[in-house]
Amino acid sequence: MNLSHVGYNHLYRALDVIAEKKETLEQALFERERSLFNMQVDVVFYDVTTFYFESTSADSLKDFGFSKDGKFEEVQVVLGLITDCEGRPVGYELFPGDTFDGKSTDTDKRGLKLHELHQSERKGRGIFDQGQRDSFKPKDTTGNEDEKP
Question: 0.70 cut: is pTM over it?
Fold first, then answer.
């Protein structure tokens, strides 16, 4: 697909439409990659990072929170990213800047679908850093609780 003739302004205007279809696009891309690369998503890696803005103007997404970069006087957003064991993105979600890392794995959040990944692969395991691992407890339909490493 050659997009060299498409100007930045056209791309920026399309972002709102794309954002409305994020879930559908993400799922379609995941299924395509799964088929194309013969992916077995039995292990996923999850990490959270922050992106700060040179601004003090907060809104529903940009907000003040714990800054890993030491930028406590600037607003930020929190990004949760899931990759497979090859480093290919499986999903992501943006959270308000004041979101605690551990809260980004709440199973009622649509974006990350960690529980669904666990269930769809049956033997799936998520690898988290300490901040997320302690607060994430996926539901287990068999009645057994997932063990903590």
Answer: no
